Input
Amino acid sequence: MNKSDWFLVVVVCFLFGILFGEYYLEGEGVRNVVLGVLLMVVLRYFVRIFGVSFVRVLFFGVLFVAFGFFRFVFSFEGGDGHIMNFQGWFEFEGCVVEETDVRADKVKYVIEAERILVDEGWIYVSGRVLVSGSRYPVYKYGDCLKIGGKLQKPEKIEDFAYDKYLNRYSIYSVVYRAGIEKISGGEGSVFFGTIFRVKEIFEGKLNKVFAEPYGGFMAGLILGSRKGISENLMNSFNKTGLTHIVAVSGYNVALVVVVVCGLFSFFTRRVKVVLSIFFIAVFVILVGASASVVRAGVMGGISLIALWFGRQYFVFLSLMASAFLMNLWNPKILVYDVGFQLSFLATLGIVIFSPVLERFLKWVPQVLGLREALQLTLSAQIIVLPIIILNFERFSLVAPIANVFVLPLIPFAMLFGFIAVFFGELFGFLGYLILKIIIFFVEIFGSLEFASIDIKWTWGIAVFYYVVLAKFCIERFCSPSPSSE
Output
């Protein structure tokens, strides 16, 4: 059993520990029992596959399960000085610490609270608050504000766990209709402030080159910004299983690497690697550091480091490393961030099932990457199916064929859109033509009555599905070796 095998044990047990922590806090004893049984089965398979003592695997397994458990349980903020302890109408002061979220009818700000007015006296506090203010004026990152409004804890919105969604950002209080007054500006980091301004300028130029709905769509492709995409178009994306194309992913990171290596082609390989990693980090921050783009950025960085040392790049291990590092930093994303779950599992599905499906899809023509698009789509769909049904209670029947038509066009649309910002409308026209073709396919497939079906699964069905899938994967891809118990 080599180091990479032990690393796999560590990551799997650490992630199991986070799940144990979530179900412990939720009082889900039955789920923890089921999870414990699954963990023991997984550890037994590790013993069978790697030929190592069960006692050693169990020891390290329990150690890192405990690490994941406590990392999750103690990731929640609180204490007497936290603003989450104040409920009701208050005035408080704080600074905008994230990029502002401008909507059609309002603006949302993430405020790091500094002090709150209680009984005509100011008390110093800490903690983040999500504040919704009027559409105008719009305040920027680094502005310090005085806010008046009703502080309350976020709650579920129908079947959407809005409270948990905000918890992953360490936000435990919200103000829905706030009166806002600016106190001062320029208090934030110069680095982040510059990045957010660059993003704002970039989006502005995109909107000048591309008229709506194409400007918003192109911003979604390149920057992962969905605020400019019409509701009807987003519904079509949802029905056709194409929402992922406007979520920043590996495509965008690959584009960053290609552009950087092209601009700095006169440097040595190692210098280009360093520059690429730097610009990947800037890009991740630029687009808001969502779970999917952080995962893509970490994987891209690991691959570049492997290139630095001249070693083979192991996609599976880099995926596990990105999951470990991201959840070590913020363990809430594993259980509260559906985007991370879909992104991680889709990539895992491609790694595991794509080589198998390749043999069964030889009849599909390779023209314009049709075979590869179908292969990647089916590979991802196999493993993300339960997550999609549990969270959205909908499954797209046309997703595989819709992806075959659309996916090959995405890199070209992104490339022409990016170049158009710097070199003008000729490239913008080419990008516009590709976007028009993409929207045509999306609307055609989305208009079909059978495009998607409503379906509900229980947690137990999803667990059974993954148990069967895991058994198939282990038996298919792993050669058992004699145990040394």
Q: What stands out?
A: Confidence is low (pLDDT under 50) at residues 479-485. The chain has three domains: 3-74, 83-188, 197-474. The first helix runs from residue 3 to 26. Residues 197-474 form one domain.
